[in-house]
Automatic annotation (TrEMBL):
Reaction equation(s) it catalyzes: a polar amino acid(out) + ATP + H2O = a polar amino acid(in) + ADP + phosphate + H(+)
Protein name, as recorded: ABC-type polar-amino-acid transporter
Pfam families the record matches: ABC_tran
Bilayer topology: Peripheral membrane protein
InterPro entries registered for this protein in UniProt: AAA+_ATPase, ABC_ATPase_HisP-typ, ABC_transporter-like_ATP-bd, ABC_transporter-like_CS, MetN_ABC_transporter-like, P-loop_NTPase
Known EC number: 7.4.2.1
Location of region: Disordered: 263-283
Domain (ABC transporter): residue spans on this chain: 13-246
Cellular location(s): Cell membrane
Gene Ontology MF terms: ATP binding; ATP hydrolysis activity; ATPase-coupled polar amino acid-transporter activity
Similarity comment: family membership: Belongs to the ABC transporter superfamily.
Keywords on record: Amino-acid transport, ATP-binding, Cell membrane, Membrane, Nucleotide-binding, Transport
GO cellular component: plasma membrane
């Protein structure tokens, strides 16, 4: 805990004046963002800095300047015990990053035993409960290569959950999946949200963002352009850049996004739309 922070109910994540450069290129240009105990979805064009922002939250990337708090702990304080704070944060990436040589059960128990010092018996009991939670009870002995992409991603989510995180970061968890497998992963995430898990989710799934997010953050060019409830940011965007992005994402073949926006307000179309992964390039 950092001594100077006296807030009584700190947001789960608090970001202040965050800048990040890679060499001469400034990728994050001053981000201020709070994630209270709720679901925040981050949307925006490829290269806008979404992944970099998420990676700065647990200091997988070191900010060039600015502050990042997780609860009351300042991650950017040089004295912060990063390993201790990171244990409270689950992270799920686009690529599942499972241990290929370990079966599902071992994938879920290894960090519990080595990092949290849980007994094997306890770790296995938690692993089985968590697998049940993501709809994979009975798959303990399977190896990652024997599972579909959607199942592997659910194992990856379960592996994070087994560490009893206080909050979860997701970076386009469905972008690498075949379209028919997206739903099962989003369903698990919807379940987590319904249980009250604090989640920061970078996603191109506009229907998910609209239905599940308490708040949507639209990023472009390394800044937060607009944020608010989904019905506002997705349904009735105030900024031209947000309108242009939504128009492109929801209607990728449109010739002139600006005309599309004025002809059909983005919010009118979104209800039935499921944006296919790949409509906007991920990486
Ligand atoms: N390690 C790095 N070294 C140099 N440049 C980087 C590095 N990581 C990211 N960048 C650059 O920073 C910019 C933002 O990248 P970032 O991955 O955060 O974007 P993004 O919004 O997540 O995009 P996408 O939707 O394609 O995933 C890009 O121009 C990218 O090339
Ligand atoms: Mg990204």
């Amino acid at each position: 805990m950092t001594g100077t922070d006296t807030r009584s109910a700190a947001p789960a994540i608090s970001i202040r004046g965050l800048h990040k450069s890679f060499g001469p290129v400034e990728v994050l240009k001053g981000i201020d963002l709070d994630v209270p105990g709720e679901v925040v979805c981050v949307i925006g064009p490829s290269g806008s800095g979404k992944s970099t922002l998420l990676r700065c939250v647990n200091l997988l990337e070191t900010p060039t300047s600015g502050k990042v708090f997780v609860g009351r702990d300042e991650m950017t304080d040089p004295d912060c015990d990063l390993d201790r704070v990171r244990r409270r944060i689950g992270m799920v990436f686009q690529s599942f990053n499972l241990f290929a040589h370990l079966n599902v059960l071992r994938n879920l128990t290894i960090a519990q035993i080595k990092v949290l010092r849980r007994s094997r018996t306890e770790a296995e009991a938690i692993a089985r409960r968590t697998l049940d939670r993501v709809g994979l009870a009975g798959r303990e002995t399977a190896f990652p290569a024997q599972l579909s992409g959607g199942q592997q991603q659910r194992v990856a989510i379960a592996r994070s959950l087994a560490m009893s995180p206080e909050l979860m970061l997701f970076d386009e968890p469905t972008s690498a999946l075949d379209p028919e497998l997206v739903g099962e992963v989003l369903a698990v995430m919807r379940g987590l949200a319904a249980e009250g898990m604090t989640m920061m989710v970078v996603t191109h799934e506009m229907a998910f963002a609209r239905d599940v997010a308490d708040r949507v953050v639209f990023m472009d060019g390394g800044v937060v352009v607009e944020q608010g409830p989904p019905e506002q940011v997705i349904g009735d965007p105030q900024q031209e850049r947000t309108r242009a992005f939504l128009s492109r994402v929801l209607n990728p073949t449109a010739v002139d996004p600006a005309e599309e926006v004025s002809a059909t307000p983005a919010g009118a179309q979104i209800g039935s739309l499921h944006v296919e992964p790949g409509a906007v390039p991920g990486h």
